[in-house]
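Side project, low priority. Logging it here so it doesn't get lost.
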Amino acid sequence: MATRQRWLDLRSFETRETLRRELAQTLLALGLEDLDLSGVVGPKRQLTQAIARWAYEREYRGLAYSSRFDATLTCWAIFEGAAFEPVRPSEPILPNDPDLVATAKLFGLSL
């Protein structure tokens, strides 16, 4: 990713505390009493869309968050306008790539 871009890290406790304050009215409207890690990575689409909208309106280029399937995995939501600088030449992903195979297995997909 290009330098000097802001990314909202939902894995961070401090980020979630900020969102708890900033989105208090939204949380109440959605019937939620609090905002925690399960909320920001959970399936409640109205909440995750509100978080993304809040970040986009403040010129973040995307979100980093823990996968709800495996907390050791980081997922990225990348917004329009994000810029990237290649760190090395691109190369094709082969069907036997260990990361691809592991991801397919995690989600029950066949290659």
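Brief comment: The helical segments are 13-22, 24-29, 37-41, 45-57, 98-106.
Revisit when time allows.
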